[in-house]
Amino acid sequence: MAPSSPQREQWSSRLGFVLAAAGSAIGLGNIWRFPFKAGDNGGGAFVLIYLACLLFLCVPYLFAELALGRKSQKNPVGAIRAIRARTPWSLVGGLCVLAGLAILSYYAVVAGWAVGYIVHDVTAAAEPSSAAFERFIADPVWVVLLFGAFLFTTIGVVAGGVQRGIERCAKILMPVLFVLICLVIFRAVTLPGASAGLDFYLNPDFSKVTGLVVVEALGQAFFSLSLGMGAMITYGSYLPDNENLVVSGSYVALFDTVVALMAGLMIFPAVFAMGQNPAEGPALVFVVLPEVFGAMPLGSFVGLLFFLLLAIAALTSSISLLEVVVSYLVDERAWTRRTAAWGAGGLAFLLGLPSALSQGAVPALSDLSWLVGGHLLGPRPGLLDVMDFLWGSVALALGALLLSLFVGWVWGSDNALRELRTGRGYTLGGLAGPAWRIAIKYLCPLTILVVLVFDVLYDVL
Ligand code: PFF
């Protein structure tokens, strides 16, 4: 096993790790993607399937990433090399680092939109919110400025280091996020007519469930927990040997799930109370919600709180995306953290510019239907949609498939289980250990493979 370098940083406490990792997990995926996926796919039924995917597949897989990171005390490339030096498996680590950079490049664009919605009073627009949104995201100057500012903040935090940058930021922002979510839920569920939204969200309608809904739920669960691209390998690598991975990993999954469920409680009661359609797809948060806020008492204040919390959630996630790349450059290429953060962040900016300009600003980037078409990407996918599909769905699924094979079969589930059983407290005793081995060796690779095939067939064909 590769020795860890003496000066490698670690989290200061379990709370520090749990908040930082929950910060990674809780992001646009929970507050923007989860509600619209649930809205499109039958509300409560989707939620139940999502929970089953989390429990049986994502949480066991999360433990595998954490174990690999903690054991090796390395970034994704180094972690794989520490177990199997000089084999093509290290390419999987390379895929993780590339995915981190690529996802960051467009994730920060969408996060920039959220920042823009804090700055503008979205309820004061004179035109319908769909027209206002389309005009806003097609404005090259604003969009690039906001994207750049968001990325700049992310770089600043990551350059500050594991404890003084990432952990400190999470310790301040995560409680703020939670309080803001509670405030918005309170406003939403006290609106007259909110109960229809609660009904839609909490009463499953199984007639809407198809194979595709299951595929969507599983893909969403992986994205939401930041799995498949080594973010949890990297965060796990800053954990000390005596930390209990099972307990702290379970907290991360629990917080992520609670926040996704709470996002539904913010959104559906308000959408139904204001007579809007819950199945609006990606426009739900940026188009439907401003109309909802515009029509309700205290709306512009609630709108400001909402987009503030969306931006905070996105920040703690984009930090982890950049950290995957930075940890690689620091561990494997001996760059200083500061140089790595600015270098990788600068590259993400250049890489993200085409995505930022792909929502109407540059027509050639805004309609790639000649290149890809399909059910999930919509009739006129822009570059940003294609990037999200390629990296946020396909690359994550591929990464998760290969990493579960690596942990289950190459490193070996016995070795991984031994790592999971290190530390005090509950460590998968009794039948949980063998069950975990079945999940990581068979259940995860097989189901992820099915998701990958479906995703590609449905989106591209
Ligand atoms: N989990 C984040 C979200 O739900 O928004 C997205 C994400 C962050 C995915 C970090 C992957 C990752 F490594």
Question: Ions, cofactors, ligands: which are bound?
Answer: 4-fluoro-L-phenylalanine
Just name the CATH architecture.
Answer: Up-down Bundle
The percentage of residues in β strands lies in: under 5%
- What does the largest sheet look like? none
Please characterize this protein's 3D structure:
The chain has 18 helices and no strands. The chain is an all-alpha fold and 461 residues long. The chain has a single domain (14-460), classed as Amino acid/polyamine transporter I. The longest helix has 38 residues, at 383-420. The radius of gyration is 21 Å and the shape is globular. The protein binds 4-fluoro-L-phenylalanine. Residues 24-25, 27-30, 103, 223-224, 226, 229, 231, 317, 320-321 line the site of 4-fluoro-L-phenylalanine.
Features of the shown structure:
461 residues; mainly alpha; Amino acid/polyamine transporter I; binds 4-fluoro-L-phenylalanine
Short characterization:
The chain has helices at 14-25, 28-40, 44-72, 76-83, 90-119, 129-137, 140-159, 162-189, 195-202, 211-224, 231-236, 245-273, 283-295, 299-333, 337-356, 363-366, 383-420, 432-460.
Would you spell out the secondary-structure blueprint of this structure?
Layout (H helix, E strand, L loop, with lengths): L13 H12 L2 H13 L3 H29 L3 H8 L6 H30 L9 H9 L2 H20 L2 H28 L5 H8 L8 H14 L6 H6 L8 H29 L9 H13 L3 H35 L3 H20 L6 H4 L16 H38 L11 H29 L1
Helix pairs in contact: 1-8, 1-12, 1-14, 2-10, 2-12, 3-4, 3-10, 3-12, 3-17, 3-18, 4-5, 5-7, 5-14, 5-15, 5-17, 6-13, 7-8, 7-14, 7-15, 8-12, 8-14, 9-12, 10-18, 12-13, 13-14, 14-15, 17-18
The chain binds 4-fluoro-L-phenylalanine.
The site of 4-fluoro-L-phenylalanine has 15 residues, from α1, α2, α10 and α14.
